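Q: What does the assembly look like in three dimensions?
Context provided by user:
Components: three
Sequences:
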Amino acid sequence: MKSYRKELWFHTKNRIEFINITHQVEEALRDSGIKEGLCLVNPMHITASVFINDDERGLHEDYKKWLEENIPHNPELYKHNRTGETNGDAHIKRQVMGREVVVAVTDGELDFGPWEQIFYGEFDGRRKKRVLIKIIGE
Amino acid sequence: MKSYRKELWFHTKNRIEFINITHQVEEALRDSGIKEGLCLVNPMHITASVFINDDERGLHEDYKKWLEENIPHNPELYKHNRTGETNGDAHIKRQVMGREVVVAVTDGELDFGPWEQIFYGEFDGRRKKRVLIKIIGE
Amino acid sequence: MKSYRKELWFHTKNRIEFINITHQVEEALRDSGIKEGLCLVNPMHITASVFINDDERGLHEDYKKWLEENIPHNPELYKHNRTGETNGDAHIKRQVMGREVVVAVTDGELDFGPWEQIFYGEFDGRRKKRVLIKIIGE
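A: Here is the predicted structure of the complete assembly.
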C-alpha cells in the first residue's frame, strides 16, 4: 500500500469564500503515483469545509444567502463568542456544509461524474489556513 | 490491496425520492471478495446524496417536509436557476443531507449497527443518474 | 495492509450530549500499530453523529440551541413518531451534523490541525449506544 500527503494553504480576502481546488487535488494524485484507492480532502480547521458541488457563481451566492439567513453571522447570537471570537456562526456553517470529502481513485484519476468539483469553503477567512490531502492505495 | 468499483443507475419517477440501496452495496461487497477495508458510496451527481438512516416511511416524509420548509423548491429563490435550471434547492438539500458515506468492511460484511441502511437520496430526479461504489482492502 | 476495529460504548444522562472521544480514538490508533492510512469513526446508530469541531462549552450550547430552533424536539411534529418513537427530530439532527468522520493517519498519529477534536454527538440518549472505529493502512 502506498500513501501520500500534501497540504494546501489559503488566505482568503473575504470572510466567506469558495475556492475550486479540483486541479490541485488532481495534481497531488498524479504526484502520488496511486492508481486505485481513496483520496481524503479536509480542512485542518474547524470553521471551514471541503465539499463537492458545481462551479457555478449563482449557486455559490445561493449557498451564502441560505447559510446567512439560517445561521446569521451576528456575533451577539453565539455563546462561543464570549471567548473573544466572532466566528460562532462559522462553526455551525461548516457542520451544515460538511467537513471532508472522500473520493474514489480509479485508473489514476479522481472518479467523478461530469459536474463534480472540489471546493474549499471558508466561513471565517482573512487568515492563513490549510487543507490536507491524504491518498492511500496502490 | 484489492480494489473494486461498481456503478448503480437510477431514474426516479419523482423529483425527490429515497431508495434503499443496502442490498446492492452488500452484493457489490460480496463480488469484490474484500474481507477487511473501507467501502465508499457516493452519487456521481451534485443534486443527490447517499446517506445512512432508517428505512421507515414516516421518517422519509419528515425529511422531505423539513427540507422543503427550510430549503423551498420555488425556482424564483435561487440565482443558480438563472442558468436555466430549476434545481437550485436540490444543490442545497444535497449538502445538508451529505454527499457520501464511508462504511467499514469487517469479515466480508458491511459493519453496521442494527438499524443502519444505505439510501440514495434524489433531490432532482426524473433523469438517469449514477451512484459509485468503491471498495478497497484485502 | 493492516486493519483494526474497536467499539466504544456510551450511555448518556441527557437526551442531547457531546462527548470528546479524541483520546479514545488516539488510543485505538496506537493499539492498531498503523502508521499510514485512514481512520473511520462512526456511530452504529441513526440518531447520533460523530463530528470534528472545537472542545468549547459555549459552542456546544450554540449547536444545541441552533439545532433545537431549527429542528424542534416536539414529538407532535414528526410522522416517524407514529411508530411509537419520540425521536423524529434526532434522525434529522444527525443528518445535519453528519454521520461519520474519516481522519488521515500520518506517522502513527491522527493528522489534525491545532483545534480539531472528535466528538460523539448524541441526539436521543439515555440508552446504550456504540461508536465504531475502523483503521486501515500499514
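Follow-up: Chain B has a mean pLDDT of 98.
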